Amino acid sequence: MQVVIAGAHGKIGLRLVALLAGRGDVVTGVVRNPDHRGDVEQAGGTVAVVDLESATAEELAVHLTDADAVVFTAGAGPGSGVARKDTVDRAAAELLAEAARLAEVRRYLLVSSTGVDEPLDPGRDEVWAAYVKAKKAAEEALRATDLDWTILRPGRLTDDPGTGRVLLAPPPVERADVTRDDTAAVLAALLDSPGSVGKVLELREGEDEVHEAVAAVSR
Predict the structure, then answer these.
(1) What does the alpha-carbon distance between residue 196 and residue 151 come to, in Å, rounded to a whole number?
(2) With 0-12 CB in 10 A as exposed, 13-18 as middle and 19+ as buried, what is 146?
(3) Which value, in Å, is the radius of gyration of the alpha carbons in the chain?
(4) Rounded to an integer, what distance in angstroms lies between the CA atom of residue 177 and that of residue 188?
């Protein structure tokens, strides 16, 4: 399988590059900063340096030629303001969808966030509100396409070692943590599961082995 990962230098992205390359897939990691090339290459991927906040869909589509799937794991990250929540978490996800359409890539996995269906907490700051709104808008834009999409909503992400066991289910699901290791493992398994197309899935730590959990929601 040939997979293009937007946000490949992120904490989920790098894990996913290593997992996919380790099983023999051909992985291209899209990064903004050329200084991140070495880390992605060390994980087993090749690198496309593209600024998703300024590139056109046509420019990005060049790097999707012959791909079987794209995965959006990018995010503005901690310390970014309201504007970048929109330009990265929403607009860049939409850009990838348009580039996939132009390159005739059908499969699209979007890493979103839990809580996007809930009313905004008035006690949270404006940056958090912008983040949730951006993730929700990205989901809605992707669902409006005819791509073979799957939306994954992890709980609070941790850097603890993965357990290989998760809770994967349609919303609503109670809030809880999940490791980035296990999130990457679920993404890899979803790429192999056509039955997960068109589904929105919440991800938490749990008791089900990753492949069994993915198989259960893909029936």
Answers:
(1) 9
(2) exposed
(3) 16
(4) 19
